[in-house]
Amino acid sequence: MKKVVVSVLSMLLSTALWAQKPVTVGGAPMYPTKNIIENAINSKDHTTLVAAVKAAGLVETLQGAGPFTVFAPTNAAFEKLPAGTVENLLKPENKATLSAVLTYHVVAGRLSSADVAKAIKDGNGKAELKTVQGGTLTATQEGKQVVLKDSKGTTSTITIFDVNQSNGVIHVIDAVVLPQ
Question: Domain 22-173's class?
């Protein structure tokens, strides 16, 4: 019976994902039937993120079953970092640091905008999100915007919500958040 229920739920989720209209990110449709990497490589706004994911050796992980919630910084977000930071992080000798920065943008599980909003409400105005890196991002609501604060106090605003993927969800952000 349990297998049947899981099978039916899986089928319903797949059907629901197929029925969704793709969200456009970086000029490209993000199909809910494709995984995070398959979609991200098509976004012209995420070429730096994709290059970083490749350099960190995280492609296979983000193509895996997940589910993952990815707070995906745009190219413009990476450009806000001090000059030379991205180039330095992409060097092979900095792979561990790059991996830590990238996994700080990932939360295990599928957190929709409704889930984040509920967590903020339940947390009396803030939600602490445990990242795959091991750190914490703090989400707050400022008007209609959801803002993430990293361990150093840097903030990033979610600019596009609920970009559903076959193995999770992406929320586009306007700044790179950094672990301790």
Answer: mainly beta
